[in-house]
Write a structure and sequence with these properties.
This protein is an alpha/beta fold. The protein has 13 helices and eight strands. The strands form two sheets. Strands 2-1-3-4 form a four-stranded parallel beta sheet, with helices on both faces. It has a four-stranded parallel beta sheet with strand order 6-5-7-8, with helices on both faces. Pfam families: Ferrochelatase.
Length: 398
């Protein structure tokens, strides 16, 4: 099932001129690959916050349950191979390197490797599609800090593709998965004709973030914009969810829910939590029929990493079982052919040899900026060197 795309000239000013890039960097979060890696990995994730190892051990149980191995590194190896194959099939000669924020291969070492291999102009793709500090700006800071610390600032140029939350290559796999998931839930309820759709809810799940970070998402003093829900992060998810439901089942009810909250209890985060929401809708709280079936769509995630494998496939599905609710969890894009092709299209948008002019997108919020506005998604903990931001000079030719 296809969804419509359009062109939004309002964001034209956010484009970068095409360039002759000579390599691609796939940047991701990273994860442990054995029990002995778990605490060192969590130290990396929480660096600068003064969290003792005893507390880290308390929150390590989901990694311990999987033998200390996060799925994310294996998935990134598969994605890197899929990107290489798609680039090769199109005759695009760009090598793909992979670097992580929190585990080997680390971004600074990867940048040094790229430079040593003779590359000077790099285009970065991240495994985060939406706009907020941890999904976009923190990656841009990672590169800014790495260029500074390695001495490569002014010698190696690194740009970043736009946030691709509403690129059809990212959204259409969710359309396919939601269509199939809804059919499964209808069958489980014995109503494939849709006669029990009032008892079915589609839950679009994404990572919760502190409300303070959410309010900063997409904000810029130089170009203020107002967003639904007070945040680009929230607005982008809502817009995507509407696009998916319009293509799949316009009359089926749906909600945006959050998961994977961490941090101090007194700090407000985006809500509702998926498990709390399941408890509520299963009893018909707030009016309407009690929900008997749910389709869980991990809309905020690129692959089936730990937040999906544990928070959804373990905790949320256990909650559904306890409540007697039929549940199906939809796949993430992973290495779906449309997703991989879409990432290569994002690369082609930016290259001088083979530019895609129309910048496809499925919501009115897109296409997002190639170059973020000054101060966009700033973190309240303090500023760091950052790339791919208007008015910032860092790296060769910025």
């Amino acid at each position: 099932m296809q969804i419509s795309t359009s062109i939004n000239p309002v964001t034209e000013a956010g484009r970068m001129e095409p360039k002759a890039y000579d390599a691609v960097l796939l940047a991701s979060f990273g994860g442990p690959e054995g029990q002995e890696d778990v605490i060192p990995f969590l130290r990396n994730v929480t660096r600068g916050r003064g969290i003792p190892d005893e507390r880290l051990e308390e929150v390590s149980h989901h990694y311990r349950a999987f033998g200390g191995v996060s799925p994310i590194n294996g998935q990134n190896r598969e994605l890197k191979a899929a990107l290489e194959a798609e680039l090769d099939a199109r005759g695009i000669e760009l090598p793909v390197y992979w670097g992580n924020r929190n585990w080997d291969p680390y971004i600074p070492e990867t940048l040094q490797k790229m430079y040593d291999d003779g590359h000077r102009r790099v285009l970065m793709i991240t495994t985060s599609a939406y706009s907020c500090y941890s999904s976009c700006r923190q990656y841009r800071e990672d590169i800014g800090v790495a260029l500074t610390e390695t001495g490569l600032a002014g010698r190696l140029e690194v740009d970043k593709v736009r946030q691709y939350f509403d690129h059809p290559g990212f959204v259409e796999p969710f359309v396919e998965g939601t269509t199939a998931g809804l059919a499964q839930v209808r069958e489980a309820l014995g109503a494939v004709d849709g006669s029990r759709d009032s008892e079915i809810r589609v839950l679009f799940a994404t990572h919760s973030i502190p409300t303070r970070d959410a309010e900063a998402a997409g904000r810029s003093g130089s170009e203020p914009r107002e967003f639904e829900g007070g945040s680009a992060y929230v607005a982008q998810h809502l817009a995507n969810a509407r696009a998916v439901m319009a293509a799949v089942a316009p009359n089926v009810a749906w909600d945006l829910v959050y998961q994977s909250r961490s941090g101090a209890p007194h700090v407000p985060w985006l809500e509702p939590d998926i498990n709390d929401h399941l408890e509520s809708i299963a009893t018909g709280e707030g009016g309407g029929p009690a929900v008997k079936g749910v389709v869980i769509v991990p809309l905020g995630f690129v692959s089936d990493h730990m937040e999906v494998a544990w928070d959804l496939d373990t905790e949320a599905l256990e909650t559904c079982e306890k409540l007697g609710v039929q549940a199906v969890r939809v796949p993430t894009p992973g290495v779906h052919g449309k997703f991989v092709a879409g990432l290569v299209d994002l690369i082609r948008e930016r290259t001088s040899e083979d530019t895609v002019a129309d910048r496809p997108h499925v919501t009115d919020l897109g296409p997002w900026y190639d170059v973020c506005r000054p101060g966009c998604c700033e973190n309240f903990r303090g500023a760091k060197p950052v790339i791919a931001e208007a008015g910032v000079e860092l790296g060769a030719g910025h």
